[in-house]
Specification:
The protein has 174 residues and is of the alpha+beta class. The protein is built from 3 helices and 9 strands.
């Protein structure tokens, strides 16, 4: 496998081929300024009849202030896509790697409706949309381990969606 340097939106031309499956995993959408542009690029990487599968953190999850307790969840971040981005200067990374030498970080918000509309606008047919009550990292200190090696809300709390997935098919006509 060769490493391709460039913008993810250039993937169809950079890769130069189409695939039966395009899979996007947790944490992809927050780095994309316009989710519709990303969905179009991902769809262009699919063979006719191919499947695009996305699983990511639920848009609601990123709106909460991280340092609060389970009893004090407060929405502070944007939910819907907007022209601007959020910026942080944290030296940490969400991986197990070392601290960052440059901590400047930009992220964008995308609501569920925008994600679904982006898939449809890219010519994809939605096969399923699912919201899950688990997340593969301990997004809040008070989340507890789930049976699937992920984290969930404590059992004495109401559930909320922590991740979501979308499965869509590219039209088979070409």
């Amino acid at each position: 496998m060769k490493f391709i340097q460039g913008d993810v939106l250039d993937a169809p031309e950079a890769v130069g081929q189409r695939f039966d499956i395009v899979y996007a995993s947790i944490g992809v959408l927050c780095w994309i300024p316009k989710v519709a542009d990303w969905a179009s690029a991902a769809a262009a990487c699919l063979e006719p009849g191919g499947t695009l599968y996305l699983r990511d953190g639920h848009p609601m999850l990123s709106t909460f202030e991280w340092g609060r307790s389970a009893e004090e969840l407060v929405c502070v971040g944007p939910y819907f896509e907007r022209a601007g981005h959020s910026r942080s200067d944290e030296p940490w990374t969400y991986t197990d790697g070392p601290q960052l030498t440059v901590g400047e970080n930009y992220q964008w918000a995308h609501g569920m409706g925008e994600v679904i509309d982006a898939f449809i606008g890219a010519g994809l047919t939605i096969r399923s949309v699912d919201e899950q009550d688990t997340v593969p990292w301990q997004a809040f200190e008070w989340l507890v381990p789930a049976d699937n090696r992920e984290y969930r809300m404590p059992r004495d709390r109401n559930d909320m969606p922590l991740t979501f997935s979308v499965t869509a098919i590219r039209d088979g006509s070409g």
